[in-house]
Write a structure and sequence with these properties.
Distance between the termini: 5 Å
CATH class of the largest domain: Alpha Beta
CATH superfamily of the largest domain: ATPase, nucleotide binding domain
Largest sheet: 7 strands, mixed
CATH architecture of the largest domain: 2-Layer Sandwich
Strand content: 15-25%
Shape: globular
Radius of gyration: 20 Å
Oligomer: single chain
Order of helices and strands: EEEHHEEHEHHEEEHHHHHHHEHEHHEH
Length: 392
């Protein structure tokens, strides 16, 4: 097979912006050759937070922001191409995660509240504004087959990190933390994946509020490092229902987002800024180590990616809680923590267009293998280029 090129787009639960990666694909080798990050404006971020709120979201807002984000995703692609030596006609496909605004991995409320998910950022708008065919809306096919629609990147973790003899835990720390457990290939054990709980979400929300907007995250864990863990609060956090559930399981902003932080601050407003950040940082670290010790049979290496991999204090706390395990970051394996998820969606989109399974049932809980993705395309040339991906 000759080289083809795909572009991955990721906008995660942190709601901080869009990451784009232009990826060269040869056989099943994937190499990032150009990247872009576009921050949301404060107004855009506020609108997106409102969309994730049951109290503030409206049908009109959801409908409109779906198209608005589609156009913003398209502009991100076009700016990425301008920064590179590539043109739209050089690109075989775009693969977009979209922006999750609500996720219901399980439900027993009533017959009309079913397992479901919603990612916005219209595929047709992206295709029209770029001239490139788009793959997206990956989660729904998994849920239709009885899965929780996440974690999706477990498949990409398998492609990138599966090892013949080593047992690896691939930990992403974005807004939410999630792990893919890769037993050694030769063991023939099942790959599993699940969300470990909050990653940066609670830390970022508390920093933003308590700094009165002056900071949006705890750079390198410098605030947490000055604080002391409040054991009462930590024990209460570790007793949360989600932490005690068994995998497969997923969570999101609807559980550990703004409303959760509201309740925390009401009860623990006597704690200092530093002590609060230190405690919720420890919660992230311990929620990860708790799940590893309870559900993962053997671990030789932990490989951490996502924004949390740049929080030196958080990495120290994870290592401290996993004394006999080697802890690495994605960069130790020449994979960018910043753009790993954008790369992951190129991998998912590529396999989809080849007509090959791009998920792991034991990770998501689906009843069987399914093909994740939908196509958005608005011109015949782009459609033909997507079809040729299957030909190799």
């Amino acid at each position: 097979m000759g080289k083809i090129y795909g572009i991955g787009l990721m906008s995660g639960t942190s709601l901080d912006g869009i990451d784009g990666a232009l990826v060269e694909i040869s056989e099943n080798n994937y190499q990032i050759i150009e990247t872009i990050s576009v921050n949301y404006t404060e107004e855009e971020r506020r609108q997106l937070f409102n969309l994730c709120s049951i109290e503030k979201a409206t049908n009109k807002m959801i409908c409109s922001m779906n198209m608005y984000l589609g156009e913003k995703f398209a502009k991100t692609v076009n700016d990425l191409l301008k920064n590179s030596q590539f043109k739209a006609e050089d690109i075989s496909f775009i693969s977009s995660h979209g922006q999750t605004i609500y996720h219901i991995p399980k439900s027993n409320d009533n017959k009309y509240t079913v397992v479901s998910t919603l990612q916005i950022g219209d595929l047709s708008m992206i295709a029209e504004k770029t001239g490139i065919g788009v793959v997206g809306d990956f989660r729904t096919a998994d849920m239709a087959a009885g899965g929780q629609g996440a974690p999706l990147t477990s498949f990409a973790d398998k492609v990138l990190f599966y090892h013949e003899t080593k047992y690896r835990a691939i930990q992403n720390i974005g807004g939410i933390g999630n792990v893919t457990y890769l037993p050694a290939k030769q063991s023939n054990e099942n790959i599993i994946a699940f969300d470990t709980g909050p990653g940066n979400m609670m830390i970022d929300e508390l920093v933003l509020r308590m700094s009165k907007g002056g900071q949006s995250y705890d750079e390198n864990g410098n605030i947490a490092r000055k604080g002391t863990v409040d054991d009462l609060l930590l024990n209460e956090l570790m007793a949360e229902e989600y932490i005690r559930e068994s995998p497969p399981k997923t969570t999101g902003r609807e559980v550990f987002g703004k409303n959760f932080v509201d309740k925390l601050l009401q009860k623990y407003n006597h704690l200092s800024f530093e002590d609060l950040i230190c405690t919720v940082t420890e919660f992230t670290a311990q929620s990860i180590s708790f799940h590893y010790k309870k559900y993962l049979k053997q671990i030789d290496e932990v490989i951490i990616g996502g924004g949390g991999s740049y929080n030196g204090y958080l990495i120290e706390r994870i290592q401290s809680n996993l004394k006999d395990v080697q802890v690495f970051t994605h960069e130790d394996f020449n994979v960018s923590s910043d753009f790993k998820e954008a790369l992951a969606f190129v991998i998912l989109g590529h396999y989809f267009l080849k007509g090959e399974t791009n998920m792991i049932p034991t990770a998501t809980g689906a009843k069987h293998d399914v093909l994740l993705g939908k196509i958005g395309v608005t011109n015949s040339n782009a459609f033909e280029k997507m079809l040729k991906v299957k030909e190799g």
